[in-house]
Amino acid sequence: MMRMTVCKALPVALVLCQSLPVNAVALTTEREAELQNMLVQDCGSCHGLTFKGGLGPSLLPAALQGKPREFLITTILNGRPGTAMPPWHPLMTRQEAEWMLDKLMPSNDHATD
């Protein structure tokens, strides 16, 4: 009986472990302020200071809604080849890219993977 319970629980545990970031550490208030500044100044320089679009597309929740979370995070970290969107992975971690995405879409209205 014990063996069957462990076998049923293992796939669930593996899925949960895959969704946890490795070495996840809470962002400091100072780093959050730096990321907020980067979002407004750096992202805003192409996407518009109100995020309605400019050189880059709109970053408003309605424009991002329905796009898979993983796609958006990958875009932030790796950029978009052939466009003006640069890769930001040299300046931020995946956890920080997720934090930025949560700031852009506070209601979590993006599709899950």
* Average of the residue pLDDT scores: 82
In CATH, what is the class?
Mainly Alpha
What percent of residues are in strands? under 5%
> Distance between the terminal alpha carbons, to the nearest Å?
34 Å
**CATH-level-4 superfamily name:** Cytochrome c-like domain
Sheet with the most strands, sense and barrel status:
none
CATH architecture: Orthogonal Bundle
- Residue share in helix: 40-55%
Number of domains: 1
Q: What is the N-to-C succession of helices and strands? A: HHHHH
Describe the structure.
With about 110 residues, this protein is mainly alpha-helical. It has one domain (about 30-113): Cytochrome c-like domain (Cytochrome Bc1 Complex, Chain D, domain 2, Orthogonal Bundle). It is about 55% helix and about 0% strand. It has 5 helices and no strands. It is globular. The model is unreliable at about 1-20 (pLDDT under 50).
